[in-house]
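Box S2. Input/output pair 1.
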Amino acid sequence: MATTAFGGGPSLDQRRTFAALRDGTHVPGYRGYCPQIKYRVGKTYGTDTHELSKDHEHRHPASVLYLVPPETLRNDLPDPTGDNKYTKDMVPGYTGYIPRMPFKFGGTYKEDCDVCIDDYLTNRRTADIKDADLRQQVRGYPSLTPIAHNPGVRDKMNLYRDTHPAQPTLLEDKRPLTEPPIPGYRGYIPRIKATELGLGARYHNATKKGLQQFVNETAAHAEKVSDRLPLSIERVTSQNPMNGPTSYNRRLYQQDGMIPKYTGYIPHRRFVFGNTYGDTTRSLSVCGHNSNSYGEWAQSKLIRQSTIA
């Protein structure tokens, strides 16, 4: 018997005999799947796997496990060419996807790969045969005569459209607003989630009720708006004993400047540098004018410029 250093060594059966493993026992340290092993406590791994092998035939007997070839495959697995993925010489460690491989347990990588690839090829060829048979049956039936090319139908449709102009379905290809969408539509439908219209009903009925309710509310709101009288906006002033007449539109930017840490927007402040926050705001036109609001000051400024011009 050649030694391992010269490419030989004991066979697998000789190794199992030397380790005195009983029939059906896994080698301690085996990380593969073993049914019901997690529910057994108190015995060694070898004893548990030996007893489980009698109740669950998850593997072949040790004497013929590596001597009996795998079952004859229905397809001739392809040879590796460098471009094809699924071949008959799959190397352990391949990290790509193999169909049905996650559901195979108890066999070697080569055997499981051959079975999975064989099933994949069989299913694909079966699907191709069914598709070819369906195409052949379709070609065997006589072709239907299209009526779209019939000039009589075209003339009748044109005459009907001219004599019935009130039919919107013939003039434009637009769905009405209250028509419910098909099931599976992921867009927004008003009123079906915020109200009880979407509870306890099928999607078709719920969407139809929601769209109809939305149309009714929109029409009612339009009627209310049309009935309102136009409002006249006038500036209302009040008498302030300290500063005289002031507008209800009170001034936002004061003449004495803005308080530091004010987080609101101040026009033109971003273009001023080198001063404190108070000096900066007091120097801006929005704070330095004497009018009741910046709009009044800007309007008076335009009037003065037009007068001078």
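Box S3. Input/output pair 2.
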Amino acid sequence: MVADIDLSAATFLLGPEQTFSPDQEKLAQAVMSFVRQHLPLADHAVFVITGDAGTGKSAVLAHLFASLQTQARSGSGALAGTQNTLLVNHQEMLKIYQEVAGANPVLRKKDFMKPTPFINAAHRSGSLTDVTFVDEGHLLLTEPDRYNRFDQTNQLAEIIRASRVTVLVFDPHQVLKLKSYWDWPRLRTVLAPYPHTLFDLDTQFRVHSQAAVQSWINAFTAGTIAPWPVHPGYDLRVFADGTPLYQRIEQQDARYGLARVLATADFPFTVFGPTKWYVTAGTLRLPWDKISMTATPWAQRPETLHEVGSIYTIQGFDLNYAGIILGPSVGYDPATRQVTVDVTRYQDNEAFKKRSDLPDLTAARAQIMRNAINVLCKRGRHGLYLYAVDPQLRAALLAAQAKGEDNGH
């Protein structure tokens, strides 16, 4: 386990004082039973862990992997000597896993990899890994990608073929790019040739609030501004300008830590190069985050309080308070009372790279944009602050908040 490490800073792992919920404990037992049952059969079996953002999927996965490696390296028992790997196609999360490995005598940094190096190494050696854990499996590529040196057509299919048992975390509502486009039919097609089982986690851990707030976020992501929820203990607010939102984030960071501003990908940016790109929200103007070669994830670095984080730097991580800037692509139609997304105004060109096997690219792009909103709005444990660039959406949100306050919420 990783109990000796301070995991309070934005990680998705369990802290020293935290324990599993009954559902998480049941999941852990089910995974280990599945591994013990299928590992001797070498039948490429797959255990799929599903659940919404913030339900503790990664926490269980990390715990299970540490437990498995302890048994693999103990020299006794049925799992002794097994060769196991944890994969994640997310650089910031990989940093956390490697940080934990550096402080845990059971784990090694080489235990954690990105999918493409793992797949390419398996093709060269022809050998099978015993158990392969895959975190954020919805980020796996579903088409060739020359930039990532992936030449096959589906990373999950390749991982399963290279593993005796695969344990996969999967949430189609967190798919953020067309080149890693997943839905349930696509997953079922990949799983069909192999023994597999699914386990759904449905208890929310990250968003510390009543179910009403979680339901409000889900409705908003789907396109509806529901009545303002009752939320004692959870700070849900809409701001008429970006500057007071940022000031509130600064105050919360000073008091509690782990408060950051985030935004939808609606403002120009490039990943590499010296140019500094900015996010504007009314009177607020802050720079986008930049790729960092340091071992410390974005959300843990103090200087990032003065930046705006993206879905790529914050996905999978916890904050105490999240201030979300909804950019120009997120609008509102007063006639239908629907929150809209405009795919032509989304600035993440990498997410929208065209592919020929999707029958409705516009619908797929719109779903990716809604997924991004879902990811951003479920970062804050104790509070969510919203500012909408679109004036009609901003007015609708402020009106819903005012009505809720008038009703005593």
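Caption for Box S3: The longest helix spans residues 22-38. Residues 1-10 have pLDDT under 50 and may be disordered.
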